[in-house]
């Protein structure tokens, strides 16, 4: 048995070292990128929340649906054009069919969910990485969007949604998966990316 073991060891070592050599070293974010991403991730949802709260007070949740279906994408688009960052929202249980996460986004969202399950406050969660897309380096950033008490009017368990909200959501989003959330859970995340 002994010779087999001593033969296997160098082979194993070569495999391990080979594996290490093939793994690229993590690329650091260029100066300023993380700060810019964090700034946008703080201002974009806050601006939306301001418009949303005002409309909820004015017309109630059924009337405010348009803030989310029309204004939210417009505000993200405007912020994208102004800043040069690609900005979007996605969720593991998306309402808009466009809100399906890509593989990087999915990994971030799944990690956020397990961090919340481990007791970390959803509002503190963020992650970032330099990745290669189409052969070019891209800085990617994610910030969790926690479910707040006001969100459950449109994202809560269906029993908690008013009839007008249910009717409107069903008409706009027949494949809606964005319900059933309770405060503290992660509703989705804001994702930003910019080529380096
Ligand atoms: C008045 C109803 C309403 C309220 C209140 C509301 N949302 Fe939404 N939400 C929507 C609608 C409608 C969409 C689909 C938007 C679209 O078509 O892009 C949406 C989409 C989203 C998305 C994008 C991913 C997806 O599922 O399509 C996220 C993330 C999200 N909402 C988070 C929140 C959070 C967090 C709150 C509370 C701070 C909130 N929403 C409050 C109606 C609402």
Notable features of this structure?
single chain, 196 residues, alpha+beta, Beta-Lactamase, four-stranded antiparallel β-sheet, 4 strands, 17% strand, binds heme C
Task: Note the run of SSEs as H and E.
Answer: HHEHEEHHE
Widest sheet: strand order?
A: 1-4-3-2
Radius of gyration: 22 Å
The chain-level structural class is alpha+beta
Terminal Cα separation, in Å? 54 Å
Total count of strands: 4
The percentage helix is 40-55%
Mean pLDDT, as a whole number? Answer: 89
CATH class: Alpha Beta
Number of separate domains: 1
Query: Under the CATH scheme, which architecture would be assigned?
Result: 2-Layer Sandwich
Sheet of most strands:
4 strands, antiparallel
Bound small-molecule species? heme C
Stated plainly, the CATH topology is called Beta-Lactamase
Taken from the alpha-carbon principal axes, the silhouette is globular
* Parts with pLDDT < 50 across at least 5 consecutive residues: 1-21
Question: What is the tally of helical segments?
Answer: 5
β-sheet strand percentage: 15-25%
């Amino acid at each position: 048995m002994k010779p087999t073991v001593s033969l296997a060891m160098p082979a194993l070592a070569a495999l391990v070292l080979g594996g290490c050599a093939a793994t690229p070293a993590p690329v650091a974010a260029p100066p300023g990128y993380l700060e810019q991403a964090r700034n946008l991730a703080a201002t974009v949802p806050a601006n939306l929340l301001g418009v949303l709260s005002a409309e909820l007070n004015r017309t109630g949740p059924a009337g405010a649906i348009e803030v989310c279906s029309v204004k939210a994408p417009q505000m993200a688009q405007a912020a994208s054009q102004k800043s040069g960052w690609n900005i979007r929202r996605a969720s593991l249980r998306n309402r808009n069919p466009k809100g399906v996460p890509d593989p990087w986004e999915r990994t971030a969202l799944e990690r956020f969910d397990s961090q919340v399950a481990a007791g970390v406050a959803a509002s503190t969660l963020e992650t970032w990485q330099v990745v290669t897309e189409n052969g070019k380096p891209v800085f990617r950033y994610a910030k969790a969007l926690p479910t707040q008490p006001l969100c459950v009017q449109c994202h809560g368990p269906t029993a908690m949604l008013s009839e007008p909200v249910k009717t409107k959501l069903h008409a706009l989003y027949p494949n809606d998966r964005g319900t059933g959330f309770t405060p503290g859970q992660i509703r989705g995340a804001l994702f930003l990316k910019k080529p380096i």
